[in-house]
């Protein structure tokens, strides 16, 4: 089993964005030392509880602070951008850090409706055009437009020795089918989807076109995990993440609350129902329990790689969680 890291750069209550971003750098360095395969950073806009609107900026720093781990976006929200600019940006990163750059691509807005309008015009139309934008991006990366195409003489520079590797991210059958049709590797967001994930990933495998850009179907599943020395400690730490989800569902765009706040929060019946639903998607436990559930998830989805997102109020608890998992699994 391969393990990777998805980092949303969450801001803990009482902390600030600078601290969260420096913690992200330290997390990537830890993942590099522990033998994680990838470190991907998410893109969010106008969300005060999440610190990173520009993964590419952070990746430029993180690449220089690490040596082996692959670095990438999880994901560039393609409807906001022109394909040529995305290709230039990730070619630059791939030139700096050859053989280590992934280009995760998604089509979610990544923020509020107002933020979406501020970022791009006609967002819904851009979403509709995502397959065409994806084609343009792949042609730019591979420098293989047809000779009579208007972009045939346009090449994103610099040109790296090894191209950034594109991945399509999603939580629906639609995204799985698109990845399969384009011959791209696919990442499914188990931690944020209410749909039948294993069926969606199976659809990707079944529909995969070997005439695309990779020779075989390849999928990663992203899962929320909190690990501690004991089950009781892990469940206590998870209370912060669960309360954070409750508050965000109510439109309270805040930092990750402390365990103490989570213990004393006046939960409603609706809050508890939401927590139960979210808990079903989380893996929480001691190292042996977490390993077993990760193994089970790999078998359920028929994948060899899982990407872990961990939300805790205290950064040391997050680092410890990844450390315990790596020592048990890797």
UniProtKB/TrEMBL annotation:
Residues 1-297 form the Luciferase-like domain. One of its GO terms (cellular component) is cytosol. One of its GO terms (molecular function) is oxidoreductase activity, acting on paired donors, with incorporation or reduction of molecular oxygen. It holds the Pfam family Bac_luciferase. Coiled coil: none annotated. It comes from the Bacteria. To bacterial alkanal monooxygenase alpha and beta chains. This is LLM class flavin-dependent oxidoreductase. It comes from Virgibacillus phasianinus.
